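--- STAGE predict ---
source: upstream dedup step, 1 unique chain passed
mode: sequence only
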Amino acid sequence: MSNQHFLKQIEAGVMRLSLNRPEALNAFSEEMLRGLISSIQEAKQNEDIKVVVLNGSGRAFSSGGDVKNMGETSGTKTYEFVGILNELILEIKSLNKPVVASVHGFAAGAGFNLALACDLIIAAEDTKFILSFAQVGLISDGGGLYFLPHVLGPYRTKELLFSAKPLEAQKAKEWGLVNEIVPLEQLPEATETLANQLANGPTRAIGIMKQIADEASTLTLENVLKREQITQAMMVTTDDHLEGVQAFIEKRKPKFKGK
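--- STAGE serialize ---
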């Protein structure tokens, strides 16, 4: 399935979503964002989908907001558009399945923040991450003012926001914003390998760990311990746990089903 501004493919438990406005460096459009929201909601409902991969067509992951339309919009329209972006971010974070951002070229502005909303980021060596909002007199949106301080702390976050200087992929990895860096020509294969590993893993357990880890910064230690205690009592009865134990005993690779 596809529309003009995004492409969707589902195969072997992996939903691949491609931002598809290459002529605009995959700048966001309402059509694109609504299509992505609908697809993430589909992934929530479809038990056969184990992993979502998000990437960009053409020369870049995404340039974020469409600069060509800036200066010609109203506060009301901006409020509504950012609300749609917010809905997408929240759908990604509430999805109880891993979402992988496969990034190349550059991820700018809200395009950078969309990648940060994902659970894992794999990037090509040539990738540049840019928080370009200050260059056009705007603040960061798309969750960047939430995600970045949690990873970088306030000082590095403000350095990136105030300066709008590009962050090279290697530095982004050193700062904990990227999980893996590969040569550009190896990015599709490396992404496919990672997605398949996740799809063949204990996705029910992975989904719950995602949710607790994302909420941990707003919870007390006691809250997290209780969540772990209650959830673990449930997980020991799952098919995936029993299969994992049996596979360990038989010295073979487990065949998880996400159940």
